[in-house]
Fold Phosphate transport system permease protein.
Amino acid sequence: MYMSTTASAQKPGTKNSSAGRAGDSIFSGLSLAAGILIFAVLAAVALFLLLQALPTFAAPADEITGGEGFFSYIWPLVLGTLIAAIIALLIATPIGILVALYISHYAPARISKSVGYVIDLLAAIPSVIYGAWGATVLAPALVPFYNWLANNLGFIPIFEGPASQTGKTMLTAGVVLAIMILPIITSMSREIFTQTPKLHEEAALALGATRWEMIRMSVLPFARPGIISSVMLALGRALGETMAVALVLSSGPMIASLIKSGNQTIAAEIALNFPEAYGLRLSELIAAGLVLFLITLVVNMIARAIIARYKEFSGAN
């Protein structure tokens, strides 16, 4: 009697267990399919770029733009892309982290919500709007500052004059990119800051730590992987940005000074020349896109390696 009662009581559970296992199998299969689809798309893009770029690699050096081979053509573009992205990160990273800390740990609730909403709104503005604003408003406004840099710090190669009188320089492009990636760093950092274990924060304050000491000992170590992720994601956006840079930057030969007109990035080079390109010139631009693809891939791999290095310590252990 007891055994039959037990068996009958297990039947509903057995059905639910079977249904649960079936649901797990379906979800696992869908997740696997989604992961495979992402890799397939990535491989298809890489294969397309490689096949279309092969004529460029096989062409004689004198037939490539500039007449000195593909490396001489692409190297200034790579350098310009990296310089613009680094300037943007140097400006946006400290500001984004400080704004995120203010929203999460200093500002009253009403103010933090308003500031957070404004930061999120910046991410919704199209890049062409940033570019138009940078070219028509920001660039002319920075001309006096560039003249001051040339007159007072011109002995430094990156500030060597004469300064551009249009303001369309690499430094202006970096400032515009910094504004564009600021919401990424701020939003992601804010979310990870708010996930810091409250017990750790309260324990630090109870031991007599100031608010800054509590943030330095409890919040920042916990948020370090998230901060790195936000910075690398912002770097990817800065490397691939097209229209804003194309509108702000006056294209020209590679120069060391950040306040002279000139320089170019890979994305802007492709955007400005692709509509009229054909034949070998089209292959050159696709090859440039392949180089940008590889740079972005390497940056993300480095980011994943850095995050994996620090993932064992989350501040919550």
Notes: Residues 24 and 180 are 41 Å apart (CA to CA). The radius of gyration is 26 Å. Confidence is low (pLDDT under 50) at residues 1-10, 313-317.
